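Entry 12.
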Amino acid sequence: MARPPLLVIGRYPDWDLQPMRQDFDVTQLAGPEEIAGLDAGLRGVVRAIAYRSQRRLGGAEMDLLQGLGLVAKFGVGFEAIDVAAARARGVRVTNTPDVLSDDVADLAVAMLIAQARRMLPATRYLRAGRWAKEGPVPLAGTVSGRRVGIVGLGRIGRAIADRLTAFKMEIHYHSRAPKPVPEDWRFHDDPVSLAAAVDFLVVAIVGGSETEGYVSAQALSALGSEGIVVNISRGSTIDEAAMLDALEAGRLGGAALDVFRGEPEIDPRFLKLENVLALPHIGSATVSTRQAMGALQRANIAAFHEGRAVLTPVV
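Predicted 3D structure (tokens):
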């Protein structure tokens, strides 16, 4: 029996490509702009795309694949895919949630502690030989018992909040509506009132046009000169220019960031700031989690081709 064709867009490790090639006739492209260059016969029979790219996949590209029925996204974020265009064309979209929540939540907590305790500056101080010459480093901030606000209490946001309760922290959160949470967790209607009530602000909402600049200059101002913002969502969810201005002027205490606008090219202003912990988007970057994400993506593709319900639908 012939293997069904599968269009694979983006870079994949061998542990994902090998099982895909076992089950499908794989054609791999670097980006969606290469779809137009495919043989017309292949474009007519492809029904599913395995997608691992941050480049935009829109309606024009979907229209080049007359039989397209599924875009299976690698990762929890799907803002690179025009979901409205997919819905209008009857194309299913899936992602890979849940399997990465623990790793991303672990990293968010680690980033918060590292920034509050100024671990990276302390490491640089030691390596430069300054400890022996100049004495102890300046004192840092406490984490345990402080107030933390979570912007977005979905799977990842809830996992972060659950971890921070072990640090005896006062949990505040903002989401579209109150969630079923412990009685002492405090809901806020908007990010500004949330930021004004806490010492640390952790951003864990989805990316995309609806959350563009969701954490505004006003929210950053409300967090204040001692506050720390942690972002493990998408670079677009914070007003990045306002954040840089506040960090440079000392109106915001610090930032721990795993995501940036225009990444991997980031604003060079970040690299000059001692009050910024910057990481290269490593939230889910562990072997076990990336393998689980790939397995879930393939399970969605298999379910679609077998006529079963996909496991993790977006639309």
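Annotation: The longest strand covers residues 5-10. The mean pLDDT is 97.
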